[in-house]
Amino acid sequence: MSPNGQPTLPEPQALEQLTQLPRPVYGHVQTLPNIVLGYRHAHPWGQLSYAIEGVLEVHTDSGFYLVPPQRAVWIPAQVRHRVSCPGQTCLRSLYLEQPPARWSPVQCRVIAINPLVRELIRTFSEGPVHYDPKGADGRLVQVLLDQLAQASQQQLMLPLPRDLRLRELCERLQAQPDADTRLSDWAVQQGVSEKTLSRLFLRETGLSFRLWRQRMRLLSALPALERGERVTDVALACGYESLSAFIAAFSKQFGVPPGAFFRQPLNQINTHGSLFDESP
Fold first, then answer.
1. Tens of pLDDT along 90-116?
2. Domain-embedded: residue 38
3. Of 25, 43, 142, 193, which has the maximum CB count within 10 A?
């Protein structure tokens, strides 16, 4: 028996052993190891993964989500996804039967994690798996859910087209951000007009090809910057011809220069929705 008189239940050793969550919110440092699954899979419940250290990458059919430290990614139930990250990445994951009310039940999203939410996740992860929903741990969970519902969404997502021709182009550019392939070049290879591909790209991603490429290049810079690589080397690897052009574009989109992005205090994360606008 537990100290509060409830029966002591065996604690599952792996997520795949579960047929249902032991509590509406589940996550535990010791009994739920955060092993990154690099193959496509889905869960019958929602997943919130918080990157303490390292950059987490989540790939779904509709988009690519980049999760630097001090952020988290929400993956709804039944959404097939693949996860990748460097070996030193440190994660905390929570599994939820129902997302906070403000979140879309069908869309992934990256959110900011402020100091309070960070400590709530840490404290909850160190608590009992079979906590008393009506006790102190249950009240802690409600505070955590309330805070998550208010978390600011981060513009760290790259939409991907469904059209196979465009999808192949996007995957090639993601693998080599400094490639100078133009949409007109790809249209010639595919035997269609550039105007046709341009309209299709905008319809399926919500972005022009130029804006999509800008977003892709800036997002691709974040893992290298988090590893501490030289800003000049990162700029060149991302397809920028000069350091000054890269710094100007990065600062305009993220609100801080590249060297300061990962040094921002948790309570000063840029949460404005003005990232990646169409202006030159």
1. 778 888 887 777 776 678 999 999 999
2. yes
3. 25
Tokens 């890269």, residue? 246
Rounded to an integer, what distance in angstroms lies between the CA atom of residue 271 and that of residue 113?
A: 11
DSSP string, the chain: --TTSPPPPPPPSSGGG-SS-SSSEE--TTTS------S-B--SSEEEEEEEES-EEEEESSEEEEE-TTEEEEE-TT--EEEE--TT-EEEEEEESS--TTS-SS--EEEE--HHHHHHHHHHHTS-TT--TTSHHHHHHHHHHHHHHTPPEE--EEE--SSHHHHHHHHHHHH-TT----HHHHHHHHTS-HHHHHHHHHHHHSS-HHHHHHHHHHHHHHHHHHTT--HHHHHHHTT-SSHHHHHHHHHHHHSS-GGGGGG--GGG----S--S-S--
Whether residue 148 sits in one domain with residue 19: yes
CA distance 49 to 96: 11
Enclosing domain of residue 30: 15-154
Q: Tell whether 126 and 179 lie within a shared domain.
A: no
**Residue 77, domain CATH:** 2.60.120.280
Count CB neighbours of 5 within 10 A. Answer: 7
CA distance 280 to 270: 21
Reported pTM: 0.80
Mean pLDDT in order along the chain per 10 residues (280 residues): 37 61 75 55 88 86 90 91 78 83 76 91 84 91 91 90 96 94 94 96 96 95 92 96 94 89 61 35
